[in-house]
Design a protein that fits this description.
This protein is mainly alpha-helical and 194 residues long. The chain is built from ten helices and no strands. It has one domain.
Length: 194
Amino acid sequence: MGEKEEKGATLVENFLNPPKEEGAEEEWVDPDAPQPDPFLRQTEVAKIKLQYLLDQLKDDAYKVRFENLVGRKVVKLQPLFKAIFYFLEYDKEKICVEQSQLLFWKKAKDYWNEDLLKKMHDYVFQGPKEKSIKSYQKINFVETQCLRAVDLETINGYNYSLSLIYRWMLLAIETRKKDIIHRLAASKVKREER
């Protein structure tokens, strides 16, 4: 083993198992103490990431790009716009051509404003929904029918603020699904305990 390899191995070992400082007391860990729930930690991390993406949208450069979409007569990536509106529980009658799933941007752009960002900020991914939602507003529909039709590179090329919203939606959907699975598992355990 060469000198560089030994030095690299030592650095990795020191990183994984840092050497104890002289005179430092060893921390005592109670083996019977309850361990923190990894799900709760993941949830807190997701909240921070979601908030970070929303804070980026408040930056002036991104806000201008967000607002510029309203001035367009036609928009590309219509499945993404539908996904955003459906995920935030807008009725399809407000954003689509009557009796269809086709996005009608002339109607939908009226809702592309600060209220949309406020709905994103107020979105709660934990716990059951307070009111019933329509079938086209469900996560699986939004994910399979709308979001899979686009990719991040295409969105970045079109409008960067839109790509921030796309990333926010992907994270929110993933976190919401994990919450649903966690709640189902917890209720199953409770049922089995009875």
